[in-house]
Amino acid sequence: MSVLSTLRDPRLRPVVSAGVTLGLSVGLFAVSFGVAAVAAGASTAQACAMSLLVFTGASQFSAVSVIAGGGSVGSALSGSLLLAARNGVYGLAMSSRLQGRLATRLIAAQLTIDESTAMSAAQDDPDAQRVAFWVTGVSLYVFWNLGTLIGALAGSAIDPKTFGLDAAVPAAFVAMLWPQLRTLRGRLAALLGAGICLVTIPFVPIGLPVLAAALAILVGVPMGDPALDAVHDGVTT
Amino acid sequence: MSWTLVLALAAGAYLFKVLGVVIIGDRTLPPVLDRCLALIPAALIASIIVKDTFSTGQHLGIDARVAGVGAAVFAAWRKAPMIVIIVVGAGVTAALRAL
Prior knowledge:
The complex is a heterodimer.
Chain A: H1 3-8, H2 13-39, H3 44-53, H4 57-68, H5 73-94, H6 102-110, H7 114-121, H8 126-155, H9 165-177, H10 184-200, H11 208-212
Chain B: H1 3-24, H2 31-38, H3 40-54, E1 55-56, E2 59-60, H4 64-77, H5 82-98
Helix pairs in contact in B: 4-5
């Protein structure tokens, strides 16, 4: 089935519109990234290059947050790359659904992020999974970059603190954290990570507390009881 | 911000994506590694929230941001969409500063 005829398939219409809607809301989120990046000292070109090339929200926000706090390039980079590592795991899950030429797979790789993986995983048949991945991925890519440009242009015209935009970054992270708290293991890792960070902030160089918090992933080591990994939908966004 | 950071992050982030989709492909990771990697976002994101809410450089303190982020947590708990959570966080912080 060609891409176009697949897109016109009425059974897939809900998937296509969900992907585009998600892209729009993420575009608004990108506006806050653009503003935050410029407030942290990035030029408009740098903010846009980040969204075009890096294209993974949590890593971009994390780099901006460390730089804004006065951290080094090394600590900004390592924290961001740790967050980017999860896209590799998504790629593992997606690779069987993204068969095709190498060039297609290389493009698919850039679009493999939280939202495209989640939308695809939510579909039942392979056609819908493929369509959901591509529609969501392309829609997010377009809106994420458009939003970043708007935010970066607006950001250089205002004082971010007056509008509480320094709190917009942690608020954005609150939104990103919420789906991670569905399992007991996720909640334990979040609590431990936050604790490690808070305790180490006064004593170690800026940027390192967030890296030290990565030790909290050791919560994943015990096999343990299924209750640890049971999903509580009451917590989902 | 430096171009080194932008480009190194771009290269690293793409490498991870390609590693999953193209290089490792259908092979599976040991379950323990799988479980730990899945917890990276929870651990790191929670720590960034704490850092951005309570610290300025190496100093811990409480200011308008705490109320803003608290309001954002409330909005997330009430299942508000992402953009509402952000606007609430920034809005409450700005309102307190304007008082």
